Amino acid sequence: MLKQHVFLSYRHESPEHIRAVRRLGEMLRSINVPVVLDQFLLDENPGGPSLGWPAWCEEQVTQSACVLIVASSGWFSSYDDPAGTPGGYGAAGEAQLFRQALWDEKGFNDRLRIAFLHELAPDTVPLRLRAWQQFRPFDDDEKFKELARWVSFALGIKVGELTPVRWPKPVDFEPDLADRVDTEWRVVRDLMLGNSPERILFLQGDSGMGKSELLWQTATYADRLGIPVARINLKGGGLDVAAILGQFHLELSKKLPNFSRDGGSKTYLLRMDLRALREPALAIFDHFEDVAANKPIVDWLNQQFLPEVETAPGLAVIVAGQKVPEHAAMPWRDTARRLELGPIIDLVPWEKWVARKFPTLKTKQVDLNTILLVAKGNPSMFAYCCQAIAGT
Question: Which of 73, 134, 158, 326 sits 20 to 30 Å CA-CA off 148?
Fold first, then answer.
């Protein structure tokens, strides 16, 4: 008897392709479809299958009630010419088993379909695989629902609805900032309202450039919007991954039921709960420069946590510091944006800020331009001078 799950058959061609397959698996899981995927197996059993990968692959091909082939040139090459396609032995074995099954069934096929997650020329699909409906679940919600309906029919189960993340509506809020309003604050605001194409924001700047104040205003606005925030202060560099997980447990426990129920110590449970969120959550990491040389934390952040932004549609992340993670070569780079905070040398925004924060300076006839020159546009220095003169 066939096992009532969908098996995702794909070839490990690139980090982007691997991540896209995982995203599809997570989307199907979110509507209660039982999914078998090698990446999920490794999450729960880092040692891999006890019978070894070849036997595991064969079992999924022959015993899964429903199979999705994830389209790629490498997988199709394995189907057409397994001997001439180097590497990808799991995919090659799966492809040949599928080929034999189609031959044995004389072309009758009620459990095998193809999903396109990237642009790929239609004529790359092997001739014998072109007869059946092909799905493009990432194109839009309707395309995903088409795939969900077929999986539901193939497995004989009722699946749930793909529920979009409920991002908040904007509320009146004026950040207590001298500048940063037209650039940095707009980016932060769009991030928290779900209007940004990127959901990872790096804020980099030297000491005194106002990073901490910008993060404080961000957390304040998030509170007004009803967005829960996990603030992870990396200052001092004495943290380890366990301490960071503990901070998530402390601040987001109500939003992370599986992670918190297990004591807030397992990254894969944190990732699972983040993917299930249908309301936004914000993670803020400050003083990254203090852990930039801490390889376990950097690896955890770059390889486990930040990639979750693609599979956890409600997760937004800000990393701030004099240094920030290098992301140009990371698979998740398209989900990230970097802003550099420099000196504020324009007097106009400072005049508005001082009039609001230190109105007595006007009666003292303080020359703000002189303060600006002394501070060299350094926000912290400028604010300290104003505070000292005002006597507050």
Answer: 73
Task: Name 341's bridge partners.
Answer: 205
Full-model pTM: 0.70
Do 3-155 and 184-341 come out as alike in CATH topology? Answer: yes
pLDDT tens track, the chain, 392 positions: 788 999 999 998 887 788 889 889 988 988 889 999 999 998 888 888 888 888 898 898 888 898 999 999 888 888 877 555 544 446 667 777 777 766 666 666 778 888 999 888 877 888 777 778 899 998 888 899 999 999 999 999 888 877 778 899 999 998 888 878 778 999 999 999 988 888 999 999 999 998 999 999 999 999 999 999 999 999 988 899 999 999 999 999 999 999 999 899 999 999 989 988 889 999 999 999 999 999 999 999 999 999 888 888 899 999 999 999 988 888 888 889 999 999 988 898 888 888 888 888 888 888 999 999 999 989 899 989 988 998 86
Report the relative pairing of strands 200-205 and 3-9 from DSSP bridges. Answer: unpaired
| Whether 283 contacts 309, CB under 8 Å | no
- 18-21's contacts with Cβ under 8 Å and 24+ in sequence apart are 19/307, 19/310, 19/311, 19/331, 19/332, 20/70, 20/117, 20/118, 20/138, 21/70, 21/117
Architecture of domain 3-155: 3-Layer(aba) Sandwich (3.40)
153 three-class SS:
helix
Return the domain boundaries, the chain.
3-155, 184-341, 347-390
